[in-house]
Structures are given as C-alpha cells and as structure tokens.
Write a structure and sequence with these properties.
The protein has eleven helices and twelve strands. By secondary structure, it is of the alpha/beta class. It folds into two domains: about 130 residues, D-Maltodextrin-Binding Protein, domain 2 (3-Layer(aba) Sandwich); about 110 residues, D-Maltodextrin-Binding Protein, domain 2. The strands form two sheets. Strands 1, 2, 3, 4, 5, 6, 7, 8, 9 and 12 form a ten-stranded mixed sheet that branches. Strands 10-11 form a two-stranded antiparallel ribbon. The longest helix is centred in the N-terminal third of the chain and has 27 residues. It starts with a helix and ends with a strand. Pfam families: PBP_like_2. This is PBP domain-containing protein.
Length: about 280
C-alpha cells in the first residue's frame, strides 16, 4: 500500500457513510404502509388485535387512517394510502373499475344492527330493517345518522330508500358527520335510534339504555373488502408491502386471527376470503 492509499483510506470509509445511511433510510421507509380503513374496524378493536400479528409475520408496520369508507376510498384515489380496507362493495368495485385500485378481495363479514332505546318508543323491534325505519319516520323518533359517506352511512341510505323515505327529512333525523363511536354516543345521550355495525356495538362501553332492536334481516349483511392502491396511478404506492398485507390477511393465518377476535366470548368478525 503506498502512502497515498494510506492517507485516503479513512476518507474512503467516510465516503461510505452516506451510502449506508441512505440504504438504512430506504429500508426504514419501506417497512411501513398506510392503510385507509373504516372507523368500525378501528373502533371495534380489530386492528389492535390483527396488526401486531401481521407485524410479527412480516416486519411491516401498518399506519391506519380510520375514516368513513367513502373518505378512505377517496384517499386511495388521491394516492394518500397504500391499501384500502373498507365495507361498501359497490364503491369498492367502482374504484377498481376506475383503475385507482387493484383487485378487490373479500376478507370478512359481520352485520348491521338497529340500536335504540330499550323502551322502543317507535315499536320497531323485530327482524325487518325496512319496516323498522318506516316506523321511526312515522313516529318522528330521534335517529342519528353517520352522515359521513361511510359504508354504514351508505347502507343506511339504501334502507331508507327501500322504506320509501328518501331523503330522510323528518324532524328527529340528525346527521352527525362522525364515526361510529361518536354516533353511538350521541344516540345514547339523546335516547335515539342509530344503525351500527355489530363489531363497534359490542366494543362500545357507553350504552346507557340502548339495546339491539332489529337484527337478523339478510339485508343487514356487512361485507368487508381489501385492495391495493394502483401504482400505475400513484407510483409512490408501496405495492409490494401492501400486497404482502393483502396476501396475509386473506391467508389461513390472517383469517384465523380475525376469527379469534372476541369480546366477552362473542366473535365480532367472520372471515370469508375463501368463499
């Protein structure tokens, strides 16, 4: 080794530092994804149970933005998320058809329930959601709507349409523009009716005198889907990591974790990716 090599050797080592730092930063940047999802999956506690298991399996962190399904899908259209986990199949199929998301995969289901005061002043108790909403409107009873373009809100509007009450404009109807938890809180404080997903209801603590009044109608079926944002539209999408999440959550391992999430011995979501 000549004298010049000896002199410049430390500088060559220093020159490698930015390269190593850049590689480390690149790894850090690709070890997390952003998932736009619904307030029901977040507020039910499912993600607190599910995502740590995915992290163990993959080493990938998932940063959840919990908003209404409509807002979550709009995040995908804008490229503000890598993966969407939502529950409005019509809107999901539309965003895929528009080319903003890749293939939609069914993941799990539960159901909607109509919650209301245990005394049931509008006498809606039963299995028919359409007849129940007709009675709520006729009685001018208090009703809290999410009003946030969420999957729950979209379902609610379908039921009002089927009931011939479109748009619902009776005096007791109030749209909060809020998530499922706050809507339930409003219903509890006002003694009003509200449509909720069963998962969030089971995890809800501030029930006051609310009770499930309508359940079991096949129209209350609530399907969830997952899809990766299309990198052809948004090249910054972390498509490989996002697809790893999709592949895991629809695999037997991920489906088993979903099935295992319970509150007080009651299962909140039912995996159906294989169907």
């Amino acid at each position: 080794m000549n004298v010049f090599s000896k002199f410049f050797k430390p500088f060559r080592a220093l020159a490698l530092i930015p390269v190593v730092l850049a590689a480390t930063l690149s790894i850090a940047q690709t070890s997390s994804i952003v998932m736009a999802s619904t307030t029901s999956t977040e507020q039910s506690g499912l993600f607190g149970h599910l995502l740590p298991e995915f992290k163990k399996a993959s080493g990938i962190d998932v940063k959840v933005v919990a908003v209404g399904t409509g807002q979550a899908i709009d995040m995908g259209r804008r490229g503000d998320a890598d993966v969407l986990f939502v529950h409005d199949q019509v809107a999901e199929e539309k965003v895929v058809a528009e080319g903003f998301a890749l293939k939609r995969y069914p993941v799990m289901y539960n159901d909607f329930v109509l919650i209301g005061p245990a005394a049931d002043p509008a006498q809606v108790k039963g299995r028919d959601i359409v007849e129940a909403l007709k009675k709520v409107s006729a009685a001018n009873a208090g009703f809290i709507s999410r009003g946030d373009k969420s999957g729950t809100h979209a379902a609610e509007l379908r039921y009002w349409k089927n009931a011939g009450v479109e748009p619902p404009a009776f005096a007791g109807y109030k749209a909060c523009g809020c998530g499922m938890g706050p809507a339930l809180n409003m219903a509890a404080s006002l003694g009003a009716y509200v449509l909720a997903d069963r998962g969030t209801w089971l995890s809800f603590k501030n029930r006051a005198d609310l009770a499930v009044l309508v359940e079991g109608d096949k129209r209350l079926f609530n399907q969830y889907g997952v899809m990766v944002v299309n990198p052809a539209k948004h090249p910054q999408t972390k498509v490989l990591e996002a697809q790893k999440f999709v592949d895991w959550v629809i695999s037997p391992a991920g489906q088993g974790v979903i099935a295992g999430y319970q509150i007080n011995g009651e299962q909140l979501f039912f995996p159906n990716a294989a169907q």
